[in-house]
């Protein structure tokens, strides 16, 4: 098992944002967490990347207990997050943002990084066209691509993608999900948080449904997509 989250509880002061959640991600999978606004999806992602402290429960990565590991050490192990929203360094160029993604790598001065930049550019040709442009002047969709590209520059084993489709035009949404599938096909395990449940379930091997901080359902993406209650609650009833 690549990621094992067990009995996780996370608070904001007295607010219990997530309560006793347990889920796993196997090497090679795309696993999605879906749920309404405020269900606890972003909190879960931030806790796996170390940005929120754990009140109870454990997080193991590749067998190692990382529950209390500082966030800057996790990319070294192979966990990399593309955060919700734009999350780029707005005053830096595309190339500089991509360099930041590789900072934790021991091999950052080598050919491997140049190869990974080429891979990012082949996934997102738009970023290559704009490599010397300042991130803050690009569109929301382009900044989303840059956030994903930057996360990939860490050459992660586990990519945490928080709402990659947020705020994008419908045409771009399908494209972003195609790229998620392609990233996974190239060998990266993906944990995906999404409000676009239809696309997320279609792309995921397995899914967990979060409601007010708890996991209420789990199953394969296709089984949940075909489930009447899930359809009514998350797929607009169709
Ligand atoms: P969204 O899609 O809106 O980001 P989410 O499913 O990611 O929703 P979280 O952002 O994880 O949900 O929020 C879970 C709960 O924690 C909510 O009740 C929210 O109000 C609360 N919460 C989130 N961030 C904070 C914060 N910084 N301070 C206090 N409460 C917070």
Automatic annotation (TrEMBL):
Phylogenetic placement of the source organism? Bacteria, Bacillati, Actinomycetota, Actinomycetes, Micrococcales
InterPro entries named among the record's database cross-references:
AAA+_ATPase, ABC_branched_ATPase_LivF/BraG, ABC_transporter-like_ATP-bd, ABC_transporter-like_CS, BCAA_Transport_ATP-bd_LivF, P-loop_NTPase
Its source organism is Oryzihumus leptocrescens
Q: What is this protein called?
A: Amino acid/amide ABC transporter ATP-binding protein 2 (HAAT family)
Q: Tell me one GO biological process term.
A: L-amino acid transport
For this chain, the family text in UniProt reads:
Belongs to the ABC transporter superfamily.
Family matches, as Pfam families: ABC_tran (PF00005)
Which UniProt key words apply to this protein?
Amino-acid transport, ATP-binding, Nucleotide-binding, Transport
The terms under GO molecular function for this entry are: ATP binding; ATP hydrolysis activity; branched-chain amino acid transmembrane transporter activity
Q: Does the keyword Transmembrane helix apply?
A: no
Q: Which domain of life is it from?
A: Bacteria
The segment(s) forming the ABC transporter domain are 3-237
């Amino acid at each position: 098992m690549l990621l094992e989250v067990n009995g996780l509880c996370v608070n904001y002061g007295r607010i219990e944002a997530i309560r006793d959640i347990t889920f796993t991600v196997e090497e090679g999978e795309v696993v999605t967490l879906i749920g309404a606004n405020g269900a606890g999806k972003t909190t879960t992602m931030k806790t796996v990347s170390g940005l929120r402290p754990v009140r109870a429960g454990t997080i193991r990565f590749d067998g190692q207990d990382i529950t209390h590991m500082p966030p800057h050490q996790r990319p070294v192990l192979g966990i990399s997050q593309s955060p919700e929203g734009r999350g780029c360094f707005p005053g830096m160029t595309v190339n500089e943002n991509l360099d930041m993604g590789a900072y934790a790598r021991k091999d950052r001065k080598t050919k491997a990084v140049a190869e990974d930049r080429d891979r990012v550019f082949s996934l997102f040709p738009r970023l290559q066209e704009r490599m010397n442009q300042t991130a803050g002047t690009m569109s929301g969709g382009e900044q989303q691509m840059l956030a994903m590209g930057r996360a990939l520059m860490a050459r992660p084993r586990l990519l945490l993608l928080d709402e990659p489709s947020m705020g994008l035009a419908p045409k771009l949404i399908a494209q972003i999900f195609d790229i998620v599938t392609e990233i996974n096909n190239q060998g990266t395990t993906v944990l995906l948080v999404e409000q676009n449940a239809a696309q997320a379930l279609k792309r995921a091997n397995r899914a967990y449904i979060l409601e007010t901080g708890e996991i209420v359902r789990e199953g394969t993406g296709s089984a949940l997509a075909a489930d009447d209650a899930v359809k009514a609650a998350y797929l607009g009833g169709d």
